[in-house]
Each structure stands twice: as structure tokens, then as C-alpha cells.
Design brief:
Blueprint: H1 2-24, E1 55-60, H2 62-65, E2 73-79, E3 82-88, E4 94-101, E5 109-116, E6 123-129, E7 134-138, E8 143-148, E9 155-160, E10 167-172, E11 177-181, E12 186-191, E13 201-206, E14 212-217, E15 222-226, H3 230-241, E16 253-255, E17 260-262, E18 270-276, E19 279-284, E20 288-292, E21 299-303, E22 310-318, E23 326-331, E24 343-350, E25 364-373, E26 378-385
Parallel strand pairs: 12-16
Antiparallel strand pairs: 1-2, 2-3, 3-4, 5-6, 6-7, 7-8, 9-10, 10-11, 11-12, 13-14, 14-15, 15-17, 18-19, 19-20, 20-21, 22-24, 23-26, 24-25, 25-26
């Protein structure tokens, strides 16, 4: 009887302890009681261009936006054989500024990039596409300045050097990259050849200093090219002294071997790659973005929801950190002070309705807020649905 009483007492004690634990457990708020999060981006307006073809690229002019006295939000789009320049105003209004139409109806522009002229700091717009020609437009002069011919097939992306406005980089379907001097009109360096890409190059990007280039393409590979090599630096210096339209041809340097190459990051072709400090963000057509360090072991896979739609790519936007959502992390080394900032990675997924003539923004947009902690060189990634 005593044993039974002690057992019953223990059971009652256990029940009391469980009851206390239940009382101490916090009460979870329902979805209706939780405070609604303010959306990071809201829809303001839409535009439809008259050429009836896909719009492949949209680029904002960051130099005009950072003007100290008269900042302007100006952006350019390319589609079909025309390039269009717009300006954003208050209350979501967008004004049409200029339209440039190529002489050839067979041309289809795929890419554009903003630069500026060193002499008067006026903006320049580089456009390229299916014909393999890189054209330079001066919006302030309302004229087409010059064209650069050399690629054997379509040009998929162009980009100006972040520190030297004379240098323009182009990536082509002919498996090569070319570095141009837009002032002296010469091809400085050709990146490709024996150990270069084996299929068309889809995306390129300079690092913040401009001494490294990363390229990606349809051969599932990512390659790093160093511009601080002695022969490349000599060619860049010689291109600045080259006389335009001289009888002496410029001695273009060809780089056959990249400093780093890998096919182990993605299993499908790679259509977008960007530097993030000393790390890289690359996106493949399997709806996956990978943050990784060349030559390192750490990586972070950001897998998107499989919706069967076209994920157009991504861009890095410097802004304030947005909280909330799930978080995962990867260690990203940053060695430069100017890169100790907050980054927002914006990924927009657009679903095109086959029955409609205008692509409605329907599917999903996700933001990845990437912040850097200066103490432990640690980057945190938060995933949010908009």
C-alpha cells in the first residue's frame, strides 16, 4: 500500500509538473494577430513599347542618380532594334526621353550599359545584340557616336569598367570576351581560346576594383580572368596612346588561360553572375542562386520555388537591412573598407501569360537581404516573399 501511495504521489507530482510547464509555455499569436509587414516595394506604373518584341534589359544610370545638385532617375531599355531612354518622376510617372532605332531591321538588341565621357562627364549608352556590333550612343548630343566590330556572333552582355570609363567589356556567343577602348576605338584584350569558354558567354561582371572579371555561359562553367597581368596592363596603357584611324594596327593581346575555372557550381547553363565582395553570386536556369567563394569550400544555395516560370535574373541593390523571414548564413570574406555596407539582392520572377499581349507581374518576387558584420566577417541571408 505504501508503494502504491508513493507511486500515485509521483504520478500526481509528474502531472503537476507537466501542468506547470504547460502554463509557462508562451502563447503563439495567430496569423491574424501578428502585425502586418510593410511591403518593401509597391507597384506604381507600367509601360508598353510599340515594337511588340521582348524587352531584354533595363539599366538605370547610377551616375545621374548620384548627381550632387540635380539627381535624376534615368533608365534605358533595349528590345527589338531600338533603345529607349526614360525618366522617373514623382507619383510613379515615367516620361519618355529618347528612342534610338537601328538602321537594320534584322538587329535585336540584347543588352545595354551606362558610362560617361571623361572630357565633359556626359552620359554614354552602349548597346549590342544579335548582329555582334557594339554601338555607342551619346544621349546629350542625340547621336550615334561609333560602332565596334570584332565579335563573330551575337553580343549577350556589355559592361563599363568601374574605375576607367574608357574601357568597355563585351561577352559574345562566339565563346569570347573582348575589352574595348571606346575613346581610341581599339580592341585591347581578347579573353578566350584554348582554355576559354566552349559555348556562348551569357554574363560577365567586374569586381569593385576592376582588376578581375568573372564570366559564365552555356558550357556550365564559371571563369575568372585577371587584368593585373603585365601584358594586359601594357596593352591597356598602349591603347590610351593609340591614334584613331592610324595606318598602324593596334596589337591586341589574347589571353587563353583564366586564373580560375570551375564547372562544379551549377549543373545547367549559367545566365547571371555578380561579384559580392570577394565572393560570387551565380544563377543557373535550374532556379538556383549560389553564393560561393572561388577556391573555397563554403557555399550557400538559395533555391527558388519551382513555378515553371522564367526567372529573369538578379541585381544587387545597396539599401537598408530588412528584418523578418527565415535566415541562413555563409561566411563571406571582404577585404576592402568601401565594401563594408549592407546589400539587398533582389530577385524578380515574372510569369508570362501566353494569352495576354502584356506580361503581367503576377508570380512572385523574393528579396535576399545580405548584411555584413564587421567583427566576424559573417554575412547573413534572409529570405522574404513580397
Amino acid at each position: 500500500e505504501r508503494e502504491r501511495a508513493s507511486e500515485s504521489g509521483n504520478e500526481s507530482g509528474d502531472d503537476t509538473e507537466k501542468h506547470r510547464r504547460k502554463r509557462k509555455a508562451p502563447v503563439k499569436q495567430s496569423a491574424a494577430q501578428q502585425p502586418a509587414r510593410r511591403p518593401l516595394f509597391t507597384f506604381s506604373s507600367s509601360l508598353k513599347e510599340d515594337h511588340g518584341k521582348p524587352v531584354y534589359t533595363v539599366r538605370f544610370n547610377n551616375l545621374l542618380a548620384q548627381h550632387p545638385t540635380n539627381p535624376r532617375d534615368v533608365f534605358a531599355t533595349v528590345g527589338s532594334n531600338q533603345a529607349t531612354i526614360y525618366e522617373c518622376h514623382e507619383q510613379g510617372k515615367v516620361a519618355l526621353l529618347q528612342v534610338y532605332v537601328d538602321d537594320s531591321s534584322d538587329e535585336s538588341y540584347y543588352t545595354c550599359a551606362w558610362g560617361y565621357c571623361k572630357s565633359d562627364l556626359s552620359p554614354l549608352l552602349a548597346v549590342a545584340g544579335a548582329r555582334g556590333l557594339v554601338r555607342l550612343i551619346a544621349p546629350t548630343k542625340h547621336s550615334h557616336l561609333k560602332s565596334f566590330a570584332g565579335h563573330g556572333d551575337a553580343v549577350n552582355e556589355v559592361m563599363f569598367h568601374p574605375a576607367d570609363p574608357d574601357l568597355l567589356l563585351s561577352a559574345s556567343k562566339d565563346h569570347s570576351l573582348r575589352l574595348w577602348n571606346v575613346t581610341t576605338e581599339c580592341c585591347v584584350v581578347i579573353l578566350g581560346g584554348e582554355k576559354g569558354h566552349r559555348d556562348e558567354v551569357l554574363s560577365v561582371h567586374f569586381n569593385s576594383v576592376g582588376d578581375k572579371i568573372v564570366s559564365a555561359g552555356m558550357d556550365h562553367s564559371l571563369k575568372l580572368w585577371n587584368l593585373d597581368a603585365a601584358d594586359v596592363q601594357e596593352a591597356v596603357a598602349a591603347s590610351k596612346q593609340h591614334v584613331k584611324k592610324s595606318k598602324k594596327l593596334f596589337n591586341t593581346v589574347t589571353v587563353h588561360f583564366p586564373s580560375f575555372s570551375t564547372c562544379g557550381v551549377h549543373r545547367n547553363y549559367i545566365d547571371c553572375v555578380r561579384w559580392l565582395g570577394d565572393a560570387l553570386l551565380s544563377k543557373s536556369t535550374d532556379n538556383r542562386i549560389v553564393c560561393w567563394v572561388p577556391g573555397g569550400q563554403q557555399r550557400l544555395d538559395l533555391e527558388e520555388v519551382q513555378l515553371g516560370c522564367w526567372m529573369t535574373g538578379f541585381c544587387l541593390w545597396r539599401g537598408e537591412e530588412a528584418g523578418g523571414g527565415d535566415s541562413r548564413a555563409i561566411r563571406i570574406p571582404h577585404c576592402r573598407r568601401e565594401e563594408k555596407r549592407l546589400f539587398m539582392l533582389l530577385v524578380v520572377i515574372v510569369l508570362f501569360k501566353p494569352d495576354s499581349c502584356f506580361p503581367n507581374i503576377l508570380a512572385t518576387a523574393a528579396t535576399y537581404c545580405i548584411s555584413r558584420r564587421p567583427r566576424d566577417h559573417f554575412a547573413e541571408v534572409r529570405i522574404q516573399q513580397l
